[in-house]
Design goal:
Helix content: 25-40%
Distance between the termini: 13 Å
CATH architecture: Alpha-Beta Complex
Structural class: alpha+beta
Shape: globular
Length: 204
């Protein structure tokens, strides 16, 4: 079976991607499955696309030659903060900060900001590297608004404070299936899935 290596150690992200790729003839692995996996990549490219491509290249350097590599980077742009935290979303509260710390800092910075000025956009870039050298980049986004306090217990990252307005719920309140239909990463992964399906069909 064709192996797909996810260039991440984030167990929540691995579970989310596996759910969206379910049914494809792929053995999905992560960096935790590689004994000689590279250390975490310094995400210093300044763009989500640059970081995703950098992570994919680092994983490809130690992966099996026949593996497909998938890497992604996501960011959250808050209008009232001039687009922050952007590409620094995962480390907004500092190196090693957890999701709760990042959420607390963001809510502190937005204290007193009215709902109409709490608009935000989640963005995702996915890089796919195939054994023949072909490289694809997929980018998607999702508009929403930052809540005044965390809501819901599902999801990860900024999901408890990101309101998807057509549903009136945070991503953490929507549940995985509903969220994956509309989220930035969900939309990007649906496109990645279609690409993988086409490539797998072409294999002898």
């Amino acid at each position: 079976m064709q192996q797909l290596l996810l260039a991440t150690r984030n167990p929540h992200k691995v579970d989310e991607i596996k759910a969206l790729l379910k049914g494809l003839p792929l053995e999905v692995l992560s960096l935790h499955d590689l004994p000689d996996a590279p250390p975490p990549v310094k995400e210093d490219k300044g763009t989500l696309a640059g970081n995703a491509l950098q992570k994919a290249a680092a994983a490809a350097a130690v992966a099996g030659k026949e593996m497909i590599i998938m890497a992604d980077d996501s960011g959250l742009e808050v209008e009232a903060l001039g687009g922050q935290p952007g590409v620094y979303a995962a480390r907004f509260a500092g190196p090693g900060a957890d999701d709760a710390a990042n959420n607390r800092l963001l809510l502190e910075k937005l204290r007193g900001v009215p709902p109409e000025r709490r608009g935000a956009t989640f963005r995702c870039a996915i890089a796919l590297l195939f054994p023949d050298g072909d490289t694809f980049l997929i980018e998607e986004s999702c508009r929403g608004r930052i809540a005044e306090s965390p809501r819901g217990s599902a999801g990860f990252g900024y999901d408890p404070i990101f309101i998807y307005e057509p549903a009136g719920l945070t991503f953490a309140e929507m549940g995985e299936e509903a969220k994956n239909r509309v989220s930035h990463r969900g939309k990007a992964l649906h496109r990645a899935r279609r690409l993988l399906e086409r490539r797998l069909e072409q294999q002898p």
